[in-house]
Amino acid sequence: MSEKNKAILEAANAAIAAGNYEGFLSFCADDTQWTFIGDKTLQGKAAVRQWIATTYVEPPTFRVANLIAEDNFVTALGDITMKDEDGKVAHYSYCDVWCFRDSQMVELRAFVIQTEVEPQRTT
Description:
It contains three helices and six strands. Strand 1 and strand 2 (40-43) form a beta hairpin. Strands 2-1-6-5-4-3 form a six-stranded mixed beta sheet, with helices on one face. It is globular, with a radius of gyration of 14 Å. 26% of the residues lie in helices and 48% in strands. The protein has one domain (2-115): Nuclear Transport Factor 2, Chain: A, CATH 3.10.450.50.
């Protein structure tokens, strides 16, 4: 189960990176809940769709350093580079904890911190 969920998250992230936001949302349950720790909580796929439309002006660039899967959870650690509201490039480090139900992403707990510079790439 955990390897299947890991593959689902990888496919969902690939859809986001390609700008296929509806493709990404097809991996989310209708009652998905996203909590951005210290910021806000989105309830349901429609709220996530609206957030994506306003946040991802153009597709972000992901670098996933680690994917850790166990039972119904997949944790992703990495970096995101995307344009902010002003069109300036912004860099973030993140830790996303995804919960799956019936092969769909049903809950996200996201820990995201903006960084000053683009993260260093590791080999």
